[in-house]
Design brief:
single chain; 309 residues; mainly alpha; three-stranded mixed sheet; 15 helices
């Protein structure tokens, strides 16, 4: 899928900067990532669409602005037929995937990641990029086989899911500036479009869980706020994803080398997505969680949560 993208991003240098990413990092990310993203979009996604959708989909183009509205902001403009993949967001998601994999590999406390994402995405605090904030050297982390392999799968499948989701918005003729209920229906429909793509491939969208684990911090924490959001990570949306994954795990594994093993993994990812949906649906827990995270994981402690040697 995007294995080459995961490899090239893993090799990028990371000089220290007060900004999220330096101009040199942004330039290298653009040069390394965009050809692979374009190739995956054209060959893996457009090439596997139902034939009746291909002529219109062939008119859709990708654009790579430097930044979006947040560090994690992928979006489409159906009226223009354009999918926007900001360079900063590509790099940020790669960093987050590396962070999740490294923390699991080293048996560190994953609450620190949620504390960082809440502070950075929900509160907009001026924290550095994920790996800098956690004092993690990319090369050292990728010397760990588990971190390298797992983060690569998260990035490759996660970005491909996002590409297919945004293409779904365009081909399904979705509109912006709609009432919240209709906006949520559109998001669920675009997710279903992306899952249909992975079913055709017989591959697991493994990265979708970690993407939404981060993206839900961009939403308001209360139900009323989520209902008003234009890109809601709502309980219904996440629960619908979980139902698809757990309902027929083999649909997301029949194209893999070991379908039975991948079907077990699909069921596990689906169960994790279902747990996330339950968490998002608990307003009391959502409003308590930031207080606990801020108390237990201030920015000064995050740097010591799981550093590389």
């Amino acid at each position: 899928m995007l294995r080459a993208l995961a490899v090239t991003l893993a090799l990028l240098a990371a000089p220290v900067s007060a900004q999220l990413y330096t101009p040199d990092e942004m330039r290298h990310t653009f040069q390394a990532a965009t050809p692979d993203i374009q190739r995956v979009f054209t060959q893996d996604i457009l090439g596997n669409l139902p034939r009746d959708l291909r002529p219109r989909a062939a008119q859709v183009r990708l654009e790579f602005p430097e930044q979006g509205r947040s560090p994690l902001d992928f979006f489409a403009h159906p009226g223009r037929g354009v999918i926007y993949f900001p360079i900063e967001s590509i790099r940020f998601f790669d960093d987050v995937a590396t962070l999740f994999a490294w923390v699991e590999s080293q048996n560190c406390n994953p609450e620190a990641i949620q504390a960082y994402l809440w502070a950075k995405l929900r509160e907009g605090r001026p924290l550095p990029s994920p790996l800098r904030a956690f004092n993690i050297d990319r090369d050292t982390a990728f010397a760990d086989e588990f971190t390298y392999n797992v983060s690569g799968k998260i990035v490759s499948s996660g970005l491909q899911f996002i590409l297919a989701h945004e293409l779904g918005h365009i081909l399904l003729n979705h509109e912006g500036e709609l009432p919240s209920a209709e906006s949520q229906r559109q998001e669920i429909a675009a997710d279903a479009f992306a899952l249909d793509h992975f079913e055709r491939l017989g591959g697991l969208p493994m990265g979708v869980f970690w993407y939404y684990m981060a993206a839900w911090w961009l939403d308001p924490l209360d139900e009323a706020g989520r209902d008003a959001s234009s890109h809601p990570v709502s309980p219904a949306r996440i629960a619908t994803l979980a139902a698809r994954l757990t309902g027929d795990p083999m649909a997301y594994s029949h194209g893999e080398l070991d379908p039975n093993r991948e079907a077990e993994l699909a069921a596990q990812i689906g169960a994790m997505v279902a747990e996330l949906a339950t968490l998002i649906d608990d307003d009391g827990m959502l409003n308590l969680m930031p207080l606990v995270l801020d108390r237990d994981w201030p920015a000064t402690r995050i740097a010591q949560a799981c550093p590389t040697p």
